[in-house]
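Narrative progress, year one. The postdoctoral researcher (J.K.) led the effort to move from monomer predictions toward full complexes, under supervision of the PI. The following entry was the first complex the group processed end to end, covering 220 residues in total.
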Amino acid sequence: MAPGHTHTTTMSTPGRPNTVRLVFLGAAGVGKSALILRFLHDRFEHKYTRTVEELHVLEYDTTGSGKMRLEVLDTSGSYSFPAMRELSIRHSDAFALVYAVDDPGSLEEVRRLRDEILELRGDKSAPITVVGNKADLKDSEGRVLLAADVMATVEGEWDANFVEASARTGGNTVGVFQALLQQVNLPHLSPTVRRRRDTMPRPAGKKRPPLKKHNSCVLS
Ligand code: GDP
Ligand code: MG
């Protein structure tokens, strides 16, 4: 990064001004890809497609901070790629740890992932939002995890954000992203904000937005 280049320290990885990366982790089948698909394209697919790893890139304008590049990393939830998972944990600004309300094992996986994140990153630099997905499911349809119980642990003991959502109905999927962005001190992304999916991410360093007040100088 050029000396004297400025950016707002609270909201992006050093060396990547105005870029924020959200990483979705969780057991296979909990609905990580479905949440991202719902948020980005307002669609839902019943068919299950396995993800290896997928990076979605959005650019959007904020009222206060000019243009932002938002990266959303969708992961596989598979143990076959521990090195990939470790990389994704190291290069993240905020984490969505997703479980499904009908799958207690997936909540155990969230617990394990949190431990791994804290170990790799240290307690202070790991903004975590725990997401209970498939909130559309009723008890009779297999829901076994209650929001109140999980919330008590996540907010009370872990000091992390907790939200329930349903990629299927779309319920609170925006809330998932708002919780994540709030943790990196970004303004809310309203669903009506112009969204554009970049299929060809631009090389870093070009066309950086002009920066406004309360920026600090970062030397790298
Ligand atoms: P991933 O492995 O975590 O990426 O999970 P997917 O997004 O591929 O979803 C796994 C399966 O769960 C698919 O069959 C989805 O249709 C289904 N699914 C995802 N989200 C929801 C949801 O909110 N409610 C219900 N009932 N099913 C969902
Ligand atoms: Mg997936």
